[in-house]
Amino acid sequence: xxxxxxxxxxxxxxxxxxxxxxxxxxxxxxxxxxxxxxxxxxxxxxxxxxxxxxxxxxxxxxxxxxxxxxxxxxxxxxxxxxxxxxxxxxxxxxxxxxxxxxxxxxxxxxxxxxxxxxxxxxxxxxxxxxxxxxxxxxxxxxxxxxxxxxxxxxxxxxxxxxxxxxxxxxxxxxxxxxxxxxxxxxxxxxxxxxxxxxxxxxxxxxxxxxxxxxxxxxxxxxxxxxxxxxxxxxxxxxxxxxxxxxxxxxxxxxxxxxxxxxxxxxxxxxxxxxxxxxxxxxxxxxxxxxxxxxxxxxxxxxxxxxxxxxxxxxxxxxxxxxxxxxxxxxxxxxxxxxxxxxxxxxxxxxxxxxxxxxxxxxxxxxxxxxxxxxxxxxxxxxxxxxxxxxxxxxxxxxxxxxxxxxxxxxxxxxxxxxxxxxxxxxxxxxxxxxxxxxxxxxxxxxxxxxxxxxxxxxxxxxxxxxxxxxxxxx
Length: 474
What we know:
4-stranded antiparallel beta sheet; Aspartate Aminotransferase, domain 2; alpha/beta; single chain
């Protein structure tokens, strides 16, 4: 019998509340005042808007048409492969195995075979340096239309990195900052070879329901209806309801409406699970995430999860909550019992970074990086909007999705940016809705103003050359 319910937010189902004559749709977010030292260039606690501008109708039509043409050519090439006029490059069943259960579903690989392979060179690029604000890429070419690649032996140096989650710039090779990490590596080695005392929500047996992105009205309706109707079949009351949200949504650049969410959680006596993978260290005057950004009490969040791989420049993650919860996870969680423990150098890097962010190392380096990230975020977002691109998300979010829409333009944008020594991450279907392919820029405190200006300059040129400035904003 199912005894628990989990409400997960679906960021792709955005319902917005306001619209103006230009087709803009906005969601208003109110931030509370913070009691931290202020930076004259960075203000917290202001009234922020999340903008999700819709594409012009002709852009949506051309995007569907582009996918349609590529799909038709895909079916035609599959026909050529079936009659032996074109070579099959992907794995396929042997004739001797035709009576066995198939290992490969031919139709399920249609997208990979006919669409992804055309643009595969834009992903999984091999790096040969530290992934800081700039990095080096190993040049590769394909002789068979992206089915396989070979390295040329040449290196593309000093490519501006606009795709890593290096929010505070701690992915660095600074001898002074890494001295203690190196000491721990020499003292304890790189691994501990011991268990460290993860089951997904759907594997838990709980009933899963999805509410629209940042839509508190829809969430309240889901909560109210579920409490009234009870469990499936038996209609008994739910023992526990868990609301699961993210602090910053990495594909939308949106910030969770945390104060309203906490109010609903208290009203309906539910529990709240907050995923701060992209927000811890990246937002808030002290880098403490969205709870600090909104000035809410962290104790109002029952489970706080975060990662050490992004802002902290390390590996692993954490679960924070009441002692009873942490003790339970230590004794019952599969990841705690069956996977390796954290290595000493990684643990030292995390401790060092936390001390730097909180000022416990006696310096102001942490707060400087937090403010620099906020400055870079506001500056880049404002400039990209001014250029005429459509971007999504909150002004405080260091994740900046730039909408490109058409599949051909997505590929051209990524290749042209790399040719100008700028590395970007492009994302399309099925990771986004079919008509909302995008380039996702990630801000870092390690980016200088000159780096951002160079990126903006090339974006401006490519925006004109490829016709990517879709915004109708004045």
